[in-house]
Design goal:
With 139 residues, this protein is α/β, with parallel strands linked by helices. The chain has a single domain, classed as Rossmann fold (3-Layer(aba) Sandwich). Helix content is 40%, strand content 17%. The protein contains 4 helices and 4 strands. Strands 2-1-3-4 form a 4-stranded parallel β-sheet, with helices on both faces. The chain is globular, with a radius of gyration of 14 Å.
Length: 139
């Protein structure tokens, strides 16, 4: 498993997390290129089914990035996300998938370094867990 490179699907709020990712790139901050970014209007729009489908389709992990609580452009979207993540972790555990494979990150548009560091940490966690299909997940 030494050559294992996790595949990550990253659902990023267009107002904050995606802008933070853009800032990390334009600032030339180093972070793994393992993520496929998908911009969404709000982290609150990310349906749990999308996360499960991403994992079933071959992702080893899913990152959901949104505005900090209290700073959502849609007022309560990130609170909705926080509640959903809790339930999603329970669902994944029931499915035999490690809940750590789905991570929630609060990143503002000015936090490129925070985004890059979070991606490095998430990649390290996924490498520790190994490929999803080898750990009882449904692929």
């Amino acid at each position: 498993m030494s050559g294992f490179e996790p595949r990550i699907v990253a659902f990023l709020c267009r107002w904050c997390a995606a802008a933070g990712a853009d800032l990390a790139g334009t600032s030339r901050l180093q972070y793994p290129p393992n993520a496929i970014p998908i911009r969404v209007n709000c982290s609150g729009r990310v349906e749990p089914q999308w996360v499960v489908e991403a994992l079933k389709a071959g992702a080893d992990g899913v990152l959901i990035g949104g505005c900090h609580p209290g700073d959502c452009h849609y007022v309560v979207g990130n609170y909705k996300t926080r509640r959903r993540i809790y339930l999603l972790h329970k669902l994944l555990a029931d499915m035999g998938i490690e809940p750590e494979r789905v991570r929630l990150a609060w990143v503002s548009a000015t936090e490129g370094a925070r985004f890059a560091q979070g991606m490095r940490e998430f990649l390290a966690e996924l490498k520790r867990l190994g490929p999803l299909h080898e750990n009882g997940g449904e692929k």
